Amino acid sequence: MADTKVDSKARLKQAESTLAAARKAVSQQSAKLAKARAQVKSMREKAAQAGTKAAQAALVRARENVRKETAALEQAREKARQAMADRKLAKLMATRDQVVDKANARVEKVRKTMETRRSKDLAAAVGKFEQRWIKRRTAADQRKLKASEVKAERRIKAAEKKIQEGLRVLGKKGVVTEKMAQVAKAAATGSARKTKPAAKGAGSPARGAKSKAAKPASARRRTTAKRAPRKTAAAAPTQSE
Fold it and tell me: 63 CB contacts (<8 Å, ≥6 apart)?
């Protein structure tokens, strides 16, 4: 593009110089033609006054010179018209190069602006995407965590239920001691502290187990021994009858 620009400027300068020379030649040739026409007028007057063959021959030569100078002037004018056309084309080409330079400059400016904005817009887009992603991921993680807590609560409740069932079975057999009931209660309380959803009713089964199976085996045996004579006394009259 730089070479074309230089060539167009040089061509325009050369075209302007050629046009100036052509116009000068037209001016000079116009002066020669005017002089030749004046010579013809003078020769015509002399030939009319003298009436000689020499005067007539001089008039013919003067007229021939006018025709010659007229043809030369027409050639000079044609060269001037061609020089004007060349200069017009050179000016159009130089203007085209200026338009190209300005257009390329605008394109380069837009490109640099786009590169600058691309970095800023990319950073902003990444920031917004990161915020949305974190928000969605946090919500999904909370749902997963809640589901995991619910499952953990169910498992813990199932384990506590098995403990209470085991205590009831052992209580019926009269082998549950106070220490065993306390250990079961402590285990239920510890599980309630670890899992928040299970904190409402974690200790109630242990208290129920303690109320039902807190009595030692010796106390149960004493109660059974006290009740046995009543059954025997009630059966005695039947034997006497």
Answer: 40
User: What distance in Å separates the CA atoms of residue 228 and residue 3, rounded to the nearest whole number?
Assistant: 130
Question: What CA–CA distance (Å, rounded) separates 206 from 189?
Answer: 9
Query: In sequence order, what are the residues at sequence separation of 6 or more whose Cβ sits closer than 8 angstroms to the Cβ of residue 147?
Result: none
The two tokens of residue 86 are: 């060349």
Burial class (CB in 10 A: 0-12, 13-18, 19+), 3: exposed
Contact 80, 25 (CB under 8 A): yes
Taking the C-alpha atoms of residue 172 and residue 169, their distance in angstroms, rounded to an integer, is 5
pLDDT in tens, 83-110: 999 999 999 999 999 999 999 999 999 9
- C-alpha 151/C-alpha 171 separation (Å) is 30
Q: How far apart are CA 206 and CA 161, in angstroms?
A: 10
* Strands of the chain, DSSP E: none
The 8-class DSSP code of residue 201 comes to S
Residue 235 identity (one-letter amino acid): A
- Amino acid identity of residue 164, one-letter, is Q
Q: What is the pTM of this model?
A: 0.44
Q: b/e for 84-105, b at 16 or more Cβ within 10 A?
A: eebbeebeebbeebeeeeeeee
